[in-house]
Design a protein that fits this description.
The chain is built from 10 helices and 13 strands. The protein has 303 residues and is of the alpha/beta class. It folds into 2 domains: 150 residues, Rossmann fold (3-Layer(aba) Sandwich); 135 residues, 3-Layer(aba) Sandwich (Rossmann fold), CATH 3.40.50.720. It is globular and about 65 Å long. 2'-monophosphoadenosine-5'-diphosphate binds next to helix 6.
């Protein structure tokens, strides 16, 4: 199929969230689906957290091909999955669900990859968010993670996963957070899980390769900068990454660019987590360029 029409064989994917109407995933995923020419369609379905279990059961009953889960469902869904991939177990969150049908031989096959009528369906939970963080840094900033000296601002939900993923990939980390105890707790978790990682709490005394903003400071125009300008000179930093992508350039990223840093925002994270999800459902390589263009035009109204 080269359009987005539907027929009796069309299978569904959806992002479940609360709220979800802001989501750019339908635009991005349907562009990928259209380019691949697979008979899937992707919706955004507002799902209250109290209804998540029933929504997932409904997706099974309706033979959905896949789900994405966004705020506030990623942790809630863990005990609701019939099977968990290592990625979901490692990061303690599910953002991608592959629905699978059981063959007569007992094998589980992704629903998107077969037109067989299955009698038994299961949910298989994955996490594609964590990989997307480091892939975006590697590809959008052209920076290797292993051996890089990275200052991470923020130790909330997003900051914690970023810190752990960067630690897993061999970065040398400095953790800064408005609430010191949270940065200390993340440091302790890193030391427990990735003992080879060099990790410190506080600002680095020397130059770093990359500063990442994983705080929510910058989402609103009145927000302060996420770091102390007296403790960090962006002029001595090679690259800056802001997980925020709306606005496209936060005051942090603007200052970094004006200080000569190479910069990237978090749209790449959204792209790479979505591309990986599409690959998990379909077994086909995701058409990154088409998905990227659709994402840009959905988020910024431009290509
Ligand atoms: P998310 O899931 O997006 O990470 P979160 O868990 O609420 O959301 O974490 C928000 C992060 O932004 C935290 O690191 C928070 O710092 P605190 O732990 O001290 O709350 C950080 N943050 C939010 N507003 C901030 C501000 N004005 N200045 C600095 N950091 C801020």
């Amino acid at each position: 199929m080269d359009d987005l029409s539907v027929n009796p064989y069309t299978k569904l994917c959806a992002v479940l969230g609360y709220p979800v109407r802001h989501s750019a995933s339908p635009a991005m995923q349907n562009a990928g689906i259209q380019t691949l020419g697979v008979n899937l369609r992707y919706l955004a379905l507002e799902t209250h957290p109290d209804d998540l279990g029933r929504a997932i059961d409904g997706a099974k009953a309706l033979r959905f091909a896949g789900l994405n889960l966004t705020v506030p469902h990623k942790l809630l869904a863990i005990p609701m999955m019939d099977a968990l991939d290592a990625s979901a177990r490692t990061w303690g969150a599910v953002n991608t669900v592959r629905l699978e049908g059981r063959t007569e031989g007992g094998e589980w096959i992704p629903i998107a990859q077969s037109d067989v009528t299955f009698s038994e369906i299961r949910t298989h939970g994955f996490n594609t968010d964590a990989d997307a963080i480091t892939r975006s840094i590697r590809e959008d900033l052209d920076l290797p993670i292993k051996g890089s000296r990275i200052l991470l601002l923020g130790a909330g939900g997003a900051g914690r996963v970023a810190a752990l993923k960067l630690a897993e990939e061999g970065a040398h980390l400095w953790l800064v957070n408005r609430t010191l105890e949270k940065a200390t707790a993340v440091k302790q978790e890193i030391q427990q899980r990735f003992p080879a990682c060099q990790v410190e709490v506080g600002y680095p005394g020397d130059v770093v390769d990359l500063v990442i903003n994983a705080t929510s400071a910058g989402l609103k125009p009145e927000d302060p900068l996420p770091f102390d300008t007296a403790r960090l000179d962006l002029g001595a930093v090679a690259s800056a990454y802001d997980m925020i992508y709306q606005p496209a350039e936060t005051p942090f990223l603007k200052l970094a660019r004006e200080s000569g840093c190479r910069t990237a925002n978090g749209l790449g994270m959204l792209l790479y987590q979505g591309a990986k999800a599409l690959e998990i459902w379909t077994g086909k390589e995701a058409p990154l360029q088409a998905m990227k263009e659709a994402l840009h035009s959905a988020v910024y109204g431009i290509r």
